[in-house]
Design brief:
By secondary structure, the chain is of the alpha/beta class. It contains 15 helices and 18 strands. It binds NADP nicotinamide-adenine-dinucleotide phosphate.
Length: 454
């Protein structure tokens, strides 16, 4: 049984029967049948359906935003923004997929030779709860436009959102089995990788889940894309605009109540700026309003579950026990629900959980660096490599640091790390491999085919 619990109140919202292995087989077979018909359609036909999906998203935004907020506690304004972003990614790929996947002539000795991008078939997607709609759409919009079918195993606590997305694609006029939800717990997700109809696998989630799925995909020789965790460093250099840096850092740390893979997590400040940065940053963090996520005034909602909140709290208490100083927050409020306040720890050093591990919640780790080189060294002192940002008034220097010196998939200068349909998104190291979004993302689940006519 899969259970959705409102993390703001600890009330059970719904329970869902799991699919049996027989259900999974028959759903996968039906998806494979619909995928073949879908792949035979031309791009304008598919684009029309994706455009219709964008319309349904906007028409039903109240319903979907409320679903997100009640299932995982996102502040309601951010839930609406998530729905709008999903509509935009549908429109983006409806408009650009044909160009991204058009045949590319290559001059050889042949009379003509070219590269063609053909759909792979049915792709199995394992997704997390933190952006219950966006995580799905950012993979699904390009995969569907490329001509693929999708089996979605969503996080158990957001099964309501998963079923709403399945119904949404049907309402938009996509074939009824082209996009199907598999109601399964994480422990049974790996079994689906071996299904004969599954041709590729994508997972967005923790390192442990990614490693498990990738191991199975490797054993079955199936293509996989992994979007895993991050411990994004934000570097504050000596010539940084302090006001800008403090504000961007606080907003980025607290987006989605801190539960974002690309939220700012480690704040690496050069020594001369440290005290001033801490003062400005703490002020920004304490100005954020933690309250009922269904209120328009909410900046920070609850964590997605009591279990995740308690794991975060343990990272904080252990770091403090090891010598970190707590400048803000740090303790669990006495009220029902999975609440944890904006928290700032300083004097953080290597070996502490908030330095070495991902903190998936509103906890900031301030780390002092002796100078710029030391800041870059600390930034790269991680197993992750998803995003990174650098703050400096010397834009050229910032660009060199971003392009050449920071080990991450998405590097930003004087701006927060964010995803954008026009730019590739993904990481290196324990943050995973493969890319989503942009032309790179839509090509991941295609057969990049050589055609040679002698
Ligand atoms: P999680 O526990 O790995 O859950 C993610 C998904 O994987 C859920 O559908 C979950 O199902 C499933 N799952 C869990 N264990 C599994 C296993 N052994 N085999 C196969 N599937 C399994 O991750 P989370 O804690 O909910 O999500 C937060 C993590 O996701 C963070 O590390 C975050 O950084 C990462 N994330 C990465 C990105 C990115 O784009 N790089 C974006 C968002 C989040 P159940 O819910 O049924 O357990």
């Amino acid at each position: 049984m899969l259970t959705s619990v409102n993390p703001a109140t600890s009330q059970i919202i719904a329970t869902h029967e799991e699919h049996s292995p027989q259900d999974v087989n028959s759903i996968a077979e039906n998806t494979a049948t619909d995928q073949l018909a879908w792949a035979a359609n031309n791009y304008p036909h598919r684009a029309g359906k994706l455009g219709a999906a964008a319309e349904v998203l906007r028409k039903r935004s109240d319903e979907y935003a409320l679903m997100i907020t009640s299932e995982m506690g996102k502040p309601i304004n951010q839930s609406y923004a998530e729905i709008e972003k999903c509509a935009r990614v549908c429109e983006y790929y409806a408009k650009h997929a044909e160009v991204f996947l058009s045949n590319e002539p290559v001059k050889t000795e042949a009379s003509h030779s070219y590269i063609a991008y053909r759909p792979m078939g049915v792709i199995f997607a394992v997704m997390p709860w933190n952006f219950p709609f966006w995580q799905v759409f950012r993979f699904a919009a390009p995969a569907l436009m490329a001509g693929n079918g999708i089996l979605l195993k969503h996080a158990s606590n957001v099964t309501g959102s998963a079923l709403a997305i399945e119904a949404l694609f049907r309402e938009a006029g996509l074939p009824g089995n082209l996009f199907r939800v598999l109601k399964l717990p994480g422990s049974k997700a790996g079994d689906v990788v071996g299904n004969q109809h599954v041709k590729g696998v994508t997972i967005t989630g923790s390192v442990a889940a990614g490693r498990s799925i990738a191991t199975k995909a490797g054993a079955m020789l199936k293509k996989s894309v992994l979007e895993l965790g991050g411990s994004d460093p934000y570097l504050i250099l000596e010539d940084a605009d302090l006001e800008l840096a403090a504000s961007v850092c606080a907003n980025s740390r607290l987006i989605n109540s801190g539960q974002s893979c690309i939220a700012a997590k480690r704040f690496i400040v050069v020594k001369p700026l440290r005290k001033a940065f801490e003062e400005a940053f703490v002020k920004e963090m304490q100005n954020k309003h933690m309250c009922d996520p269904s209120l328009q005034t909410c900046d920070v909602g609850p964590q997605a579950s009591i279990k995740l909140r308690d794991e975060l709290h343990a990272q904080v208490t252990k770091s403090i026990a090891m010598g970190a100083d707590c400048l803000l927050g740090g303790t669990i409020p006495h009220k029902e629900g999975a609440w944890f306040p904006p928290t700032v720890l300083t004097n953080v050093i290597q070996g502490m959980p908030v330095y070495d591990e991902e903190t998936f919640g509103p906890v900031a780790a301030v780390i002092e660096a002796a100078n710029e080189n030391d800041a870059i060294r600390i930034a790269n002192d991680t197993v992750f490599g998803l995003g990174a940002a650098v703050f400096t008034k010397d834009e050229k220097r910032g660009q060199i640091i971003a392009e050449e010196l920071l080990n991450a998939g998405c590097c930003f200068v004087n701006a927060p790390v964010q995803s954008d349909p026009r730019l590739p998104f993904g990481g290196i190291g324990d943050s995973g491999y493969g890319r989503e979004l942009s032309y790179a993302g839509i090509r991941e689940f295609t057969n990049i085919k050589t055609v040679y006519v002698g």
